[in-house]
Amino acid sequence: MQQTDAARTRLRELILDGVYAPGQRLTELEAAAVLAMSRTPVREAFRALVADGLVRSAGRGVSVVELGPQALRHAYQVRGVLEGLTAELAAERQRRGEMAPAELTALERLAADAQEATAAGRLAEAVRHNRRFHGRIATLSANPVAAASLERLWDQIQVSTRRSLAAPERPDQVAAQHRRLLAAIAAGRAEEAHAAAREHVMDTCAAHERDGTEEER
Fold it and tell me: How distant is the alpha carbon of residue 166 from its chain centre?
């Protein structure tokens, strides 16, 4: 079980970091060689990643998930609803005095780290900080079902799209939206936090759709 968990974790990292591209096929033999493991834990890791929605079965191996334009939009729509909910719940906890000041400080630091990495052109790092920021809000919502569902959606979206922060107008827009979301949560304004989170997600979806249109030209 320990080797299976290690194989699953490492393969997930390689997929999310873009080492294995969307649609790329992986065989048990290839993955076992990369991970320096036997094929048995790799086989079990493949099954777990299929259940996670990160890969699909493909003969004796798997292929990395690749969401088409419509499926990607559907994923963003659900993510928008869930992130609106988690932001609202986090703000409600703040209003009730259930959130320690250190938790908000840590959230602000994650947003600042994402902005700094983006401004410096370290886009892969920025994506990781950005995801930690949103993941932290999900954790602060104290709703583990929503947090787990978001984690799965984030994996699928991250694999299929890695370009939105590279668009010239996006870094400033993302930073401003993060600040608005943080302010709403810190003030305990649940409805505003919900709206800010959902708007941010759908703007990101629109940016990806524009990128896809430009690539097709």
Answer: 16
25-27 β-sheet, strand order: 25-27, 61-64, 55-58
Q: What local confidence, expressed as pLDDT, does residue 137 receive?
A: 98
Q: What is the pLDDT of residues 122-150, one digit of tens each?
A: 888 888 899 999 999 999 999 999 999 99
Contact 89, 81 (CB under 8 A): no
Give Cα 192 distance to the centre of its chain: 22
Dihedrals phi, psi of 142, to nearest 5 degrees: 60, 30
For residue 100, how many other CB atoms are within 10 A of its CB?
A: 10
> Contact 26/63 with Cβ under 8 angstroms?
yes
Orientation angle between helical segments 39-52 and 2-16, nearest 10 degrees? 60
**Domains of the chain and any CATH numbers:** 2-64 (1.10.10.10), 69-216 (1.20.120.530)
Helix ranges (H only) for 17-61 are 28-35, 39-52
Contact of 181 with 87, CB cutoff 8 Å: yes
pLDDT digits (tens, 9 = 90+) for 4-44: 999 999 999 999 888 898 889 999 999 999 999 999 999 99
Query: Is residue 141 within 8 Å of residue 96, measured between CB atoms?
Result: no
**Whole-structure pTM over 0.90, yes or no?**
no
- E-assigned strand segments in the chain: 25-27, 55-58, 61-64
